[in-house]
Amino acid sequence: MSVLYDIPGPRARRRNRIIAIATVVGIVAVVALVLRQLQVGGQLTGEKWEVFVTPRYLEMLAVATLATLGTAALAIVFALVVGVVFGVAKLSDHRPVRMFAWTFVEFFRAVPLLILIYFIWYFAYETRIDIIAPLVIGLVLYNGSVLAEVFRAGINAVPKGQVEAAYALGLRKTAVMRIVQLPQAIKIMTPALISQCIVALKDTSLGYIMLAPGLTKTGRDLWRTFDNRLATALVLAAIYIILNLIIARIGVYVQRRLTESKTVKPVDLESVRMGAPGLGPNA
Q: What domains can be seen in the chain, in order of their start residue?
């Protein structure tokens, strides 16, 4: 017997099997209906999909994928920096610093990313900045603001007893933040950080509006040439899904490495406080 529910009897098991079979049949019927409609509409013909087995166009997609990854990597790196800076600033003891950080974070979290990119694009067009810059800057400002809240929440989630113990050793707030709070907060925040990295990667698709190099621009060129909008959309979606799954698996590996139990040797905290650089009595 389960502590949460009773084990189903013969009648319940029979009913569950019937429901499962009916669900599978229903899903198969829906898929068959969709495929039939696509066939009638000419979306499954060879000429619509031939482009995706042609080496020349596969090379175009590979280059576009690398461009998308490069844009996402730039945006994620700088967004992490912005997130750390403003997340810590929101916890500052100085009211002007807290108010500035709060205004920055709330403003760029509230402005829709597409509008933000349009605004930066207009400025970039007037000053002849590289076409990819508006997309990267927009992604950095938006995702950095979201990550600032993630960092702030992660820092606040560190047990207060450890922070108080660090203060008792004579450490100042900057040392406590750097040595005690941030390292532990990163372990807590890893799932949220990975999720935001996936969001940043997906949002690179908005570069389509300014024809920035990437998957969506290449997809636009393909469907305009071969009139295969659905096929192109499905292929691009599959590429994005694969990239996101890879990032998710990397995130799971990193989190496992960070949280796996390790044997910790006893540390003389007093010697650390007195001897470590920046941690002396006057730190």
A: 69-213 (1.10.3720.10)
